[in-house]
C-alpha cells in the first residue's frame, strides 16, 4: 500500500515539473528519483514497464509521501535548483524485464527537499535512439525529406533546400518565417500546424500531419510534416524540429489500395449474399469425376430427405428414379466429361421413395494445367410442382381438344342434317311463290310465303357459316387462289345489296379509282368476305346514313379493301368481343339486329389464309371502318406459309 502511494506521489511530482522536463520527456524518457545511496524511491510508468521494480521497502511513511504533498513554495524551490544545476551524465548497461541488456544514458539532477538530498534522473535508451536515428536516415535516403527547425525563444525558422523543392517554392534571399510557412497551406491546415507547434513548445508534444497542397505548376501534392521537441542538456525544451516529406506517390498508392480494398470488400459481400441466395433457392452439390458426392447444401438435404452425412461419399446414383434410360445418363456423362455444361430436367427419388423433378445445370470445373474436369458442380431447381401443373394442363388441353373436336363434328353433322330439310323448305316456298299449281288467292298468303322463303335462306347462310368456321378451326378448309375479275364481283355485290340498303334508307357507294381489274385470290372467299362485311355495315347503319366500299392498292404491294359505315359504332372492348366466334356486342342497338356473331371471325380467318390482315377502327355513335390488306402478287405463297404455321 505504501509503495503504491509512493508511485502515485511520484507522478504528481513529475507532473508539476512539466515546464522543466517537457511533455515528451515525461511520456517517452525514463524518470526516477533516488537518494544519495542510489536507492530507487519513485519512477514513471515508462521506467516501470521497462525495468524490474526495485523501489525501497525501508522508507518511512513520511518519506514515502514527501513527493505527494509539496507546497507551492517547495515546488518553486525544486524547479529553481533544477534550472541552476548542471546534470551529471553517464551511460549504464541495464537489464530490462525481458533480460535484454540495453544502454541507458542518465542525466542526474541534485535537489534538496525538506532537509534531505535527492537525485532526479532522466534516462534515454541510447540503443533505441540509435536504431531510430538509423531508420530515420534510411527513410530520408529513400524519400528525400527536407529538414526544418523553429527556435523556442526567438521563433527563428530554418529549413533546408529540400523543403523548398518539396513544397515547390523558390528559395528566398531571407530565411523563412512562421508567416511564410503558413502561406504554403490553406487556412485550416495553417491553423492546425500553428496549434501543433504551440503545443510542442508548451508541452513538448510531437506531431505528425499530412497536408494537401497545390504547387506553382498546379500539381496536387500530399506533404507530410513531422515535428519533435529538442531538449538541451538540462532537459529543457529549446526548439522544435522535424522533416518535410513528399508522400504524394505513397498517398495515391494508399488511395488506390483503399479503393481496391473497398471494391474487394463489396465483391466479397456480393459473393456472400449470392451464396446465401443460392443456398435458399437451389439444390447445390459437388462431386468428383466419378460422381461421388463431396458437398451438398442444406436445400439439397431438405429436398432429397437425406442428411449431409448420409450423402457424403455416396454416388449420385443413390437418387436415380428409374424414369430415364441408360442412354440419358450416358449423354450427360459424355457432355460434362468433355468439359461442356449440361442442362436439363431430371426425375430423382428422395429417401422416402417419392419422385421429385429438378431442372439441373452441371458445370465441370477444369484443371488449369490439364484442362480436364476435376470436379462437377450441380445447381438444381425443384420443379416438381411445375411438372404437376404441366401434367394437369396437358390433361385439360387434351380434354379441351376432344371437346372442340366433338363440337366441330356436331356442328358439321347438324349443318348437313339441317341443309336437306331447309333446301326442301326453300324449294317448295319458291314453287308456291311462283304459283306453279295455281293462284294463292289471299295477299297474306303471298306475304307469308315470302317470309318463309327469306327466313329459310338466312338460316341456310347461317348453317354455311357454322360449317365453314368448323372447317377453318379443324384445318379442313382450303382456298384456291386464282385470277378473276374483281370489277365484275364488285358490280354483282352492289346490285345485290343496293336494294337492301335502300329499303333501310341507306345509300350505298362503291369506288375503284385505280380501275383494278384482275386479282389473284379465292373468288368464293372474296364474295363471302364482302357479303358478310356489307351485310354488317348495312345492318348497323342508321336511317339516312351511307355505306361505302373502296378498292385500292398501296406502295407496299397490298390490295386494300375499305368498308365504311356511319352506324352505331363499337368500343375497343366491343371490337375484341365481335372478333370471337359467336361473340356479340351486348348493347341494345346491336342486339335488336339478327345474327349469330360468325361474320367477322369468318372474314378474319379467310383474310389470314390469303396472307393478309383485317383491322377495325370504330367509335361509338360515329361508325366503323374495316380495312382488309391482302398481298396483291403471290397469294399462293402466302397461303402455303399460313398452312405451315
Gap from first CA to last CA: 104 Å
Q: Helical segment tally?
A: 22
- Largest sheet, if any? 5 strands, antiparallel
Query: Mean of the pLDDT scores?
Result: 79
> Percent range for helical residues?
40-55%
Q: What is the topology, as strand order, of the major beta sheet?
A: 2-1-5-4-3
> What's the total count of β strands?
22
Key words describing this protein structure:
645 residues; alpha+beta; 22 helices
Describe what you observe in this structure:
The protein has 22 helices and 22 strands. Residues 1-7, 56-60, 131-143, 170-174, 587-593 and 635-640 have low confidence and may be disordered. By secondary structure, it is an alpha+beta fold. The strands form five sheets. A five-stranded antiparallel sheet has the order 2-1-5-4-3. Strands 7-6-10-9-8 form a five-stranded antiparallel sheet, sandwiched between helices. Strand 13 (342-349) and strand 14 form a beta hairpin.
Secondary structure layout:
Blueprint: H1 2-16, H2 18-21, H3 23-28, E1 30-35, E2 40-43, H4 45-50, H5 61-64, H6 72-84, E3 88-95, E4 101-113, E5 116-125, H7 126-143, E6 146-151, E7 157-159, H8 161-167, H9 178-182, H10 187-203, E8 207-214, E9 220-231, E10 237-246, H11 248-281, E11 283-287, E12 293-296, H12 298-304, H13 308-311, H14 326-337, E13 342-349, E14 355-366, E15 373-382, H15 384-433, H16 443-473, E16 482-485, H17 486-503, E17 507-511, E18 518-521, H18 523-539, E19 546-553, E20 558-565, H19 572-578, H20 588-591, H21 599-609, E21 613-619, E22 623-631, H22 635-644
Parallel strand pairs: 17-19
Antiparallel strand pairs: 1-2, 1-5, 3-4, 4-5, 6-7, 6-10, 8-9, 9-10, 11-12, 11-15, 13-14, 14-15, 16-18, 19-20, 20-22, 21-22
Helix pairs in contact: 15-16, 16-21, 17-18, 18-21
